[in-house]
Design a protein that fits this description.
The protein is built from 18 helices and no strands. By secondary structure, it is mostly helical. The protein has one domain. Helix 6 runs antiparallel to helix 7 and helix 10 runs antiparallel to helix 11. The chain starts with a helix and ends with a helix. Keywords: Cell membrane, Membrane, Transmembrane, Transmembrane helix. Belongs to the UPF0324 family.
């Protein structure tokens, strides 16, 4: 990375770091006054970033660093997190879990698409909502859009509300633990199946337990891998042969590098190759990068956008999420996850 690129990224990254340090400081204050952090730094960073973005529209000077923090830094953080994951953890939840994840994705896409069409949304818009809800939010929307030939305004509307709803899910999902009496394992599976983005899974599970965080991240990454088959299937159905469609089927798009890195580190950890001494350095680094990424994600959410998104889109995305939660809870009960 040359000096010019570093100069472009520095302002935005610095802003995200400042917000992150404030969030960490507020968490320490919580611990000092109440004995425990009711809101982790990860969540506080999202809230602070969202508040800043709603009150202030960053100029072009800040955008490159914010985008870099929200994308590249979070991808590095997620990859590093693989060093703490053992594949044996998912087996403890039941041998049918991976198959169950695929079923949840397929059923949710069908249900979300049907709901969106019933509400009068166009076919392409309905598919964007369905894939974004069922797989991985904005990333799925961005991957599916060129394959189905979605309009730019449809993509923008889908991403805008998904970003806002994703933050709401992160803040409210932990309440399912006392309300439904979920165990740490059950909650980890639920978070992995329902939360939109990988780093948001961390924000939703860290306040509950380490087990929830590890299992939730692993389930979420398996869910993200479902994007590849879905994009291929949609491309076949659409019958597109344009360069854009071929690009959308590239290995890089279907299997992002950070997922490959995560799985690689998880495999090394499972085989006992990564010692605890190295792990003690990797995990704090991953945590700090995640907090910085959360601040950047928050800076990309403008609450005022909610008022500009059509009511039918809002209702479609919200109902689709509720359907996803219901299906996920059903899977947890069906598999007997304890």
């Amino acid at each position: 990375m040359d000096g010019k690129r570093i100069a472009q990224l520095a302002p935005g990254i610095a802003l995200c770091i400042v917000i992150s340090l404030i969030a960490i400081g507020l968490q320490h204050l919580e611990e000092f006054w109440s004995g425990r952090p009711y809101l982790e730094a990860l969540v506080i960073a999202i809230l602070l970033g969202t508040a800043v973005r709603t009150a202030w529209n960053p100029s072009l000077r800040w955008i490159p660093g914010i985008v870099f923090s929200a994308k590249t830094l979070l991808e590095i953080a997620v990859m590093l997190l693989g060093a703490s994951i053992s594949f044996q953890a998912v087996m403890q939840a039941g041998s049918g879990l991976i198959f169950g994840i695929a079923v949840v994705v397929a059923v949710t896409i069908g249900a979300s698409y049907g709901l969106s069409r019933l509400l009068g949304l166009p076919k392409r818009m309905s598919m964007l909502v369905a894939c974004g809800n069922a797989i991985c939010g904005n990333s799925a929307i961005a991957a599916v859009a060129p394959v189905i030939g979605a309009k730019s305004e449809d993509v923008a509307s889908s991403i805008a509300f998904t970003a806002i709803l994703g933050v709401i899910v992160v803040l409210t999902l932990p309440f399912f633990v006392p309300l439904l009496g979920l165990s740490a394992t059950q909650y980890g599976v639920l978070a992995g199946l329902t939360v939109y983005a990988v780093p948001q899974v961390l924000a939703a599970t860290v306040p509950v337990s380490v087990v929830s965080t590890q299992l939730g991240t692993l389930v979420k990454l398996v869910r993200v891998l479902m994007l590849g088959p879905v994009v291929i299937l949609l491309s076949i159905i659409a019958g597109r042969s344009s360069p854009a469609a071929r690009n959308s089927l590239s290995l890089k798009r279907l299997v992002p590098w950070f997922i490959v890195g995560f799985l690689g580190l998880a495999a090394l950890r499972s085989w006992g190759v990564i010692p605890d001494a190295v792990l003690s350095l990797v995990l704090p680094t991953a945590t700090m990068l995640t907090v910085v990424s959360m601040a950047a994600l928050g800076l990309g959410v403008d609450l005022r956008v909610l008022g500009r998104v059509g009511g039918r889109v809002t209702l479609a995305v919200t109902l689709s999420l509720l359907v996803l939660i219901a299906i996920s809870l059903g899977l947890i009960r069906l598999l007997g996850v304890a």
